[in-house]
Amino acid sequence: MTNHKRFAVTGVLVTALAAMTAACGGGEAPAPSADASTPAEPVTINVHTFGGGENFGYDEAVKKWNAEHPNIQVKYSNLTDRFEDVYLPQLLQRLQAGSGAGDIVGIDEGAMGLMAARPQFFTDLGEYGLQDRKADFPAAKWETGVNAEGKLFALGTDIGGMTMCYRKDLFEKAGLPTDREEVAKLWPTWDAYLEAGKKFSAADTGAKWMDGPNTIYNVILSQEAPKNGNVSYFDKENNLVLETNPAVKTSFDWVQKFSQQGLTAKLQAFTPPWNKAIKGGDFATMGCPSWMLGVISGAAGEENKGNWDVAAVPGGTGNWGGSWLAVPKQTKHPKEAAEVLNYLTGKDGHIAAFKEAGAFPSSIPAQQDPEVAGLKNEYFNDVPTGEIFSASVKDLQPVFLGEKHAQVKTSVEKVLEGMDQGAVGYDEAWTKFVEAGVKAAG
Amino acid sequence: MTLQLAPPPRHASPRRARPSRRAGRFDLRGMPYLLVSPYFLLFAVFGVFPLLYTLWLSLHDAELAGKREFAGLANYAELIADAEFWNAVFNTVGMFVLATVPQIIMALVLANALNKRLRGRLLLRLGVLLPMVTSVVAVAVVFSQLYSRDYGLFNWILGFAGIEPIAWQNEKWSAWIAIATMVDWRWTGYNAIILLAAMQTIPKDLYEAAAIDGASARRQFWQITLPMLRPTIVFVVFISTIGGLTLFTEPVMFEGEQMMTGGTTGQYQTVAMFIVEAAFRGGFEIGYASAAAWLLFVLILFGTMINYWFTRRIGGAR
């Protein structure tokens, strides 16, 4: 009887543990079906994304899909607003564990190299006919979604494009032109931008010319990489070329020059002091991919409406940021997931997301749609964002991002911040920069 | 789980009583084990397993959702040669000393003061414990704002003395001071209360005898209070050592963005941050991070031993 009792207890525990494990595993048996649009039983497709504010902007698009497809219901959850330090580690753990990831997952530009090097975790979208979508995307956006095995694993959502945001009120105070056409003429090149900055500093408005080292660094790197074989830190064989790639050195040199001239407010991008400075008008210009407009209007608030404006960026086109959608291999419903992914990355999905979150479409048909091309941004004095960003992404080149791009990027940008704030001397900064990059690349 | 194993009624026949007696024996012998088992089961799942798994991982070249190859002690060898790891160790030990030494001294002084006859003694005693009630994150967030370069209170006050705004995160010394104050603000009162409790167990007649012999209050403190407090001080120092060497939340919140690098050149990256950075931020190298975690364990063991040896000497140990 003693033994029975003991067994009974063990049994209860084992059952409880098994139940817990099962609960963690989740998911039901796959529903085999001939036609994906009408599966035998209703399936739920979980879409997981990240980002602040309106993030991917899929609320309306999903509502519409769910109304039209009773048998494929989409559940859209934005997991967190932080990508590098929350979403990405969590996604990697779920991929490793084989469960818990969404049927469709959003991936940011910085981690695309990492994911492309892990083809074992993703469904080949080519198997579900998405290979045909190639003409819809700029080459840059398409190529990045092809993994190490040459299979299509992700399709593009938004794209950065490039402009320069500026504080109209500060420009006026400093005696610089305030009209966006004239401002663009003020800085056709980075040299001219530097000169304008010196002029601005001389006017002594109490504000600095730019925020800190890294926004401008990313802007210039995105312009320089296409001039140097479309690579930044890694070449296409995944060798570290940080030290030899002129694109990196040119960008570094510009940032060093700006910093040495005392043009930066020595701020670290995407931190609370940086947000406060956007609101308080502590600096006058900032590199602006399309998604940055939302960041500025969010941080500066209603009382600054009309103070910020948007002009063409010195030095021409470039892209910074943007995301992709992929289908992890662990999904029980790859066919249906691919179908939903096709919809979300299609023209309608892109336009809906643009209206909701301001994320500029990477899809060419969506860019050409009058709803996108004609859009203006009220917060920035009705700047025709549709027109400006379409122009800025027209000749975009596919920049290759290595497997460890995100790691190297984080490390070298720390050195730039250190240099700007004085923890790293200007004379030793390049050596430290290269060292940090080499170490991060492993 | 209901217990139906009541002792047999007295009039029951011996034959029927036997199984119940056996059950009664289980009740006495087995039940205690059963009752403590939930703790040990949870400890096994969340304590022992991660410990062993970390050890196993530390012997592999392992990436998060990536390769996993046996590497022997390569991770440890690499760590010992890694300047960034030693920088993190240096920061951790430095901040520990900077925080703990003043903290224990202040706690002693506070406890001694609270042990005197004071008006509103209970309120004062409760008061020093108040910082414990706030969450670490809240404390760190508020302090980080006070230490902010452009809009911070401390720089504003220093400004009156003609001192230029300090970028507290920028230099080792300033960052360490900022973090040490956060730690001390939260823990000094807690340690003071523990020391106070110990002080109250010291027999009054010792002090009376000393007073009759003409010993001053200061002399009494050094010759009676401190030696009698030794076991408690050892305990307080142990707890502070473990807390100080696993310092994490304060520097992370101080950094603002949670990338775990502890400043642009790792000015205040602690070992705990180094581990998280290696595993979940930069390289996703969980093998390397596991090895660092084990080295941290060794470091804590070492630190505790040194402190034990040190605190034993307090108050003229024999």
UniProtKB/TrEMBL annotation, chain A:
<protein>
    <submittedName>
        <fullName>ABC transporter substrate-binding protein</fullName>
    </submittedName>
</protein>
<dbReference type="Pfam" id="PF13416">
    <property type="entry name" value="SBP_bac_8"/>
</dbReference>
<dbReference type="InterPro" id="IPR050490">
    <property type="entry name" value="Bact_solute-bd_prot1"/>
</dbReference>
<feature type="signal peptide">
    <location>
        <begin position="1"/>
        <end position="25"/>
    </location>
</feature>
<dbReference type="InterPro" id="IPR006059">
    <property type="entry name" value="SBP"/>
</dbReference>
<keyword id="KW-0732">Signal</keyword>
UniProtKB/TrEMBL annotation, chain B:
<feature type="transmembrane region" description="Helical">
    <location>
        <begin position="122"/>
        <end position="145"/>
    </location>
</feature>
<protein>
    <submittedName>
        <fullName>Sugar ABC transporter permease</fullName>
    </submittedName>
</protein>
<keyword id="KW-0813">Transport</keyword>
<feature type="compositionally biased region" description="Pro residues">
    <location>
        <begin position="1"/>
        <end position="11"/>
    </location>
</feature>
<feature type="transmembrane region" description="Helical">
    <location>
        <begin position="228"/>
        <end position="249"/>
    </location>
</feature>
<keyword id="KW-0812">Transmembrane</keyword>
<comment type="similarity">
    <text>Belongs to the binding-protein-dependent transport system permease family.</text>
</comment>
<dbReference type="InterPro" id="IPR051393">
    <property type="entry name" value="ABC_transporter_permease"/>
</dbReference>
<keyword id="KW-0472">Membrane</keyword>
<feature type="domain" description="ABC transmembrane type-1">
    <location>
        <begin position="89"/>
        <end position="307"/>
    </location>
</feature>
<keyword id="KW-1133">Transmembrane helix</keyword>
<dbReference type="InterPro" id="IPR035906">
    <property type="entry name" value="MetI-like_sf"/>
</dbReference>
<feature type="compositionally biased region" description="Basic residues">
    <location>
        <begin position="12"/>
        <end position="21"/>
    </location>
</feature>
<keyword id="KW-1003">Cell membrane</keyword>
<feature type="transmembrane region" description="Helical">
    <location>
        <begin position="291"/>
        <end position="310"/>
    </location>
</feature>
<dbReference type="InterPro" id="IPR000515">
    <property type="entry name" value="MetI-like"/>
</dbReference>
<dbReference type="Pfam" id="PF00528">
    <property type="entry name" value="BPD_transp_1"/>
</dbReference>
<feature type="transmembrane region" description="Helical">
    <location>
        <begin position="31"/>
        <end position="53"/>
    </location>
</feature>
<feature type="transmembrane region" description="Helical">
    <location>
        <begin position="88"/>
        <end position="110"/>
    </location>
</feature>
<feature type="region of interest" description="Disordered">
    <location>
        <begin position="1"/>
        <end position="21"/>
    </location>
</feature>
